[in-house]
């Protein structure tokens, strides 16, 4: 469905650009009738396509951002549980498929929210540490359901995640 919305938004935006180009060309026409009909032509044929195409494109972008945020959260919980509460920026960025800056900002926010700590390794890497000692098997199961992940590299919708970096 998202692919269809992307395609329709691109077609509508392209149509709006074409109508706008013809409207501008009509403004420079020497015939008075054509010049007077340029603005109404754009308002009738171009503006609705521009609005609808922009609205669809914005919706697709927001959906992509939301999906990426959910994936980042799921990956964070999986990594924290599998690594006994320790996670590096590079790990999160690599497994979640986000930039290092985005992974660092997310980990900074999680460290603030969950009272995480920072450790510096011998090779100069920064590790974020979170207390998972109070979590037992039943807590892990409820966390799995809460994050919609089954800890085996597949979410509830059947999409696979790369878990090779966790091993």
Features:
single chain, 167 residues, mainly alpha, 3-stranded antiparallel β-sheet, 7% strand, disordered C terminus
What can you tell me about this protein's structure?
- There is one protein chain.
- Helix content is 65%, strand content 7%.
- With 167 residues, it is mainly alpha-helical.
- A 3-stranded antiparallel sheet has the order 1-3-2.
- Helix 1 runs antiparallel to helix 3, helix 3 (38-82) crosses helix 4 (89-96) and helix 4 (89-96) packs across helix 5.
- The chain starts with a helix and ends in a 21-residue tail after the last helix.
Task: Tell me the series of helices and strands, N- to C-terminal.
Answer: HHHEHHEEH
- Report how far the terminal alpha carbons are from each other: 35 Å
Low-confidence stretches: 144-157, 161-167
Gross geometry: rod-shaped
* Overall strand count: 3
Radius of gyration, whole Å:
25 Å
Task: Assign the structural class, choosing from mainly alpha, mainly beta, alpha/beta, alpha+beta, or little secondary structure.
Answer: mainly alpha
Mean pLDDT: 81
**Portion of residues in helices?**
55-70%
Strand content range: 5-15%
Number of helices: 6
Largest sheet: 3 strands, antiparallel
| Strand ordering within the main sheet | 1-3-2
What are the SSEs and their pairings?
Elements: H1 2-27, H2 32-36, H3 38-82, E1 86-88, H4 89-96, H5 100-113, E2 117-120, E3 126-129, H6 137-146
Antiparallel strand pairs: 1-3, 2-3
Helix pairs in contact: 1-3, 3-4, 4-5
Briefly say what this structure is.
The chain is mainly alpha-helical and 167 residues long.
